[in-house]
Input
Amino acid sequence: MSAEYLKRILSARVYDVAIESPLDFAPLISARLKNEVWLKREDTQPIFSFKLRGAYNRMVRLTPEQAAAGVVASSAGNHAQGVALAAQKLGIRAKIVMPQTTAQIKVDAVRRLGATVILKGDNYDGAFEFASQLCAEEGLTFVHPYDDPDVIAGQGTVGMEILKQHGGRLDAIFVPVGGGGLIGGIAAFVKELRPEIKVIGVEPEDADAMAQSLKAGRRVKLGSVGSLADGVAVRQVGIETFRLAQTLVDEVIVVSNDEICGAVKEIYEDRRSILEPSGALAYAGLRRYVDREDTKGQVFVAIASGANMNFDRLRHISERAEIGERREAVVAVTIPERPGSFRQFCAAIGARSVTEFNYRYADANQAHVFVGLQIAGASELKEVIDLLVGIGYETIDLTDNEVAKLHVRHMVGGRAPQVGTETMLNFQFPERPGALMNFLQRMGERWNISLFHYRNHGADFGRVLVGLQIPDSESDDLNVFLRDLEYSYTNETGNAAIGLFL
Output
């Protein structure tokens, strides 16, 4: 299997549009992790992503008839730009179907390359369905973003370059995984020539289709995917890419979104380059691997796969980076409601810096405070919590509580006892005009909204916390409403942070 792909990769046509990207040593990261870390800089490509490799290698092999008819692709970003650039270079007509939620910066980038952009659907699945329809109606050739041998071979040239650029000891290559085209190509080349090198995939915890599929022994289709690392937000990996991964990939590591944000920051500090979240994903996995295995003195490569960052998303990343690096913790602490209690609390935590302190009077006996603390790692967080509990402060770790970090920290204000029965739902609203009105119209006048919080994070989905006054007798009606609404959500009524602060 690897030998077949070795030939395909060695003969891949990518350098008409792609560059041999640098393999940069990362000195600050290497010193911090006590391992030798190199970054394969695919963010320096003409479209700031590796995706042009596979797209061009597929399209340059079209028959004259296929080229004359044109191509179609469905994508929310980097693959779209790769297909558009390849079409421009080859003089081929290209239609790119993008979800209506796609950021304008990505739509404009594709249009500048000369492709026709069609906005259809709220997500990739909707765009893919319409692109497939165009293939049937107009005789266009579909350029798949990952599940195509020519696309896989084009992406595999990244692995070919790594072995060419780094001829010495190499212990592992960390690769971001979406549909699996990049890791399939890299693994096929590397395992044929240097089988001792580990090829390790990395996925976000809210888009881990490959990890779940390898564990199940079959392709698993996720019900929904997160949007922070949208470059890898794929509900189901490819048939061919899964086949390659089963045989050639050593493991897939799953990381949190906070860890991804921390990785973006660390790479910026080392290379002064701002990667998109999926572009920093591989390094986030490398860091978790080092922590898990406690390795020292090994040699690693992480693929810096892209830099098509939506600028608005930087706010969210900067908020979460310190937590992702385990340099900040978020805790809820109950202190006595009396003069001087804040000073006594600060004295208890000693020289550690307080990064955030949110408080509002709730009752005459005790106060619940939302506190951010600078720490040196997970072990120090345990020390702080043990210290506070030992003094007599009730303390809850909220560092991994998504609702607390996304909503509650901006809303601390005490409870509203007059509200009565309240259901708290955390929604993902599509970032498009009419999403809120659709929610309100479908709900009608059945229930009162007791709380509503939304902050834009430059993502394709808005995270919205909603409180609804719903009698227990109408729980079935609520379930029907949520099913028909078709917005992804979680019920957070029992969330500790909400119970304490809202």
Q: What stands out?
A: DSSP finds 20 helices and 18 strands in the chain. Residues 38 and 301 are 5 Å apart (CA to CA).
